[in-house]
Automatic annotation (TrEMBL):
It comes from marine metagenome. This is Hydantoinase/oxoprolinase N-terminal domain-containing protein. Residues 6-177 form the Hydantoinase/oxoprolinase N-terminal domain. The lineage of its organism: unclassified sequences, metagenomes, ecological metagenomes. One of its GO terms (molecular function) is 5-oxoprolinase (ATP-hydrolyzing) activity. One of its GO terms (biological process) is glutathione metabolic process. It holds the Pfam family Hydant_A_N. One of its GO terms (cellular component) is cytosol. SUPFAM superfamilies: Actin-like ATPase domain (SSF53067). Residues 199-453 form the Hydantoinase A/oxoprolinase domain.
Length: 454
């Protein structure tokens, strides 16, 4: 056996592996359930299943949807903000857009809630001139206040810091003097550009996911070292590039959309080899549906991306549009009595009802099972056969009774709602951007993609 390259992707529901042997060009794959409590364990389970030896593996490349899913499901860390006095509410005032163009109402949940956003005296103008010196004596009290509120990370975002980052850097030093181990994100380092709201939002996202990514990578690299894997762990970025694990921990925002970005790159390469250079690439996993446009074998790239309503991130990344529609997306009847699918996902634990791990909410996977589109005897993630009658009963009790539908009709309704949402995502990246979908081939991949594309 020759020199091997290991590729791994940790999703919200499954962790996938691909091993390439460079000498004989052979490949091996593995798929294990993601372990939400300790996602590094799922990675190690896959390494064990593949029987990999540390001496044979030359490179480990790792893509992840951990950060993306944390933002979509609002399950990130508790993060605090220190900003220029008078600008505490920049993240909440936003650009005063509406979630629905013609709607008269809507809701918005900032990444950092107002009680965790604190102010301090300092001011720099747009030319970088200091107008008000940083009130250094006030930093320790702000840190103590945030520490008492249980934050796991701190974002420092001062007005016009892109022109002169001295105050942000000094504030970080003072924070670390008081609380050395806390992770600190500077807006001027994450996005050294004009536009206060977008820079603040990007920095807030970094602070929101940084503790999660940092804990995960520390755990993973530690466990790999114990098994003799001393190779540098390379982490995929959302722009399709790679960075080492230490840089990924401090610049966690660059891991956002890294899993889908890898899929879009692979789709482009496959399309070129197959004679279809123009593609609509659809990656449907257990938690999300990621769609991207590939023209001439190259995925579109953007520097301005909204991950959610009024949650922009301004770093270079492959233009992937994501919605909360995956195999594990939960179906429910909302307050208006309308069937809704996602964005919440059952994930790997407890997972779909079909998994038999305590899940009790109907999901897209359960709907496919009831409709006979999945084989109940060999469903991925289930050791034995799935209990079809249990799934049918739950579908009827939770959804069917409210809509006057039997379990099969309920399953069909769930798929219709989910598929309509995914069709809308495809229209968004094609028709709404001036592209005719008829000029593109549809390339569906991911655990659930081909099932819903046919």
């Amino acid at each position: 056996m020759g020199e091997q390259v290991l590729g791994a992707d940790v999703g919200g529901t499954y962790t996938d592996f691909l091993v390439v042997d460079r000498e004989n060009t052979g490949i091996r794959i593995a798929k294990v359930l993601t372990t939400p409590g300790n996602q590094a364990q799922g990675f190690l389970d896959g390494v064990t299943e593949l029987g990999l030896k540390s001496s044979a593996v030359r490179t480990i490349v790792h893509g992840t949807t951990i950060a993306t899913n944390a933002i979509l499901e609002r399950k990130g860390s508790r993060c605090g903000l220190i900003t220029t006095r008078g600008f505490r509410d920049t993240l909440e005032l936003r650009r005063r857009t509406r979630p629905h163009v013609f709607g008269l109402h809507g809701s918005f949940e900032p990444i950092i809630p107002r009680d965790l956003r604190l102010e301090i005296d300092e001011r720099v103008d747009a030319e970088g001139n200091v107008l008000v010196p940083l009130y250094e004596e006030g930093v320790p009290s702000l840190v103590a206040q945030l520490r008492g509120l249980g934050v796991e990370g701190i974002v420092i975002h001062f007005i016009h810091a892109y022109a002169n980052p001295t105050h942000e850097r000094r504030c970080r030093d003072l924070v670390h003097e008081t609380w050395p181990e806390i992770g600190v994100t500077l807006g001027s380092e994450i996005m050294p550009e004009v536009r206060e709201f977008e820079r603040g939002s990007t920095a807030a996202i970094n602070g929101y996911v940084q503790p999660i990514i940092s804990r995960y990578l520390d755990s993973l690299t530690g466990q790999l070292l114990k098994r003799g894997f001393e190779q540098e762990l390379l982490i995929m970025q959302g722009n399709g590039g790679m960075m080492d694990a230490p840089l990924a921990k401090s610049h966690a925002v660059h891991t956002v959309m890294s899993g889908p970005a890898a899929g879009a790159l692979a789709a482009g390469r496959t399309g070129i080899q197959s004679g279809f250079p123009n593609l609509i690439a659809c990656d449907m996993g257990g938690t999300s549906f990621d769609v991207s446009l590939v023209i001439g074998g190259e995925p579109a790239v953007t520097r301005e991306k909204e991950l959610d309503y009024s949650v922009p991130v301004h770093v270079p990344m492959i233009d992937v549009h994501t919605i909360g529609a995956g195999g594990g997306s939960i179906a429910r009847i909302n307050e208006a009595g309308i069937l809704q699918v996602g964005p919440d996902s059952a994930g790997a634990d407890p997972g779909a009802i079909a998994y038999g791990r305590g899940g009790c909410e109907p999901t897209v996977t359960d709907a496919n099972l009831v409709l006979g589109r999945l084989n109940s005897e060999t469903i991925t993630g289930v050791a034995g056969a799935a209990k079809l009658e249990t799934v049918r009963a739950a579908m009827g009790d939770k959804i069917g009774k409210c809509l006057g539908l039997d379990p099969v009709e309920t399953g069909a309704a769930i798929l219709a709602v989910a598929n309509n949402a995914m069709a809308g995502a495809i229209r968004f990246i094609s028709v709404e951007k001036g592209h005719d979908p008829r000029d593109f081939a549809l390339f569906a991949f991911g655990g659930a993609g081909p099932l819903h594309a046919t």
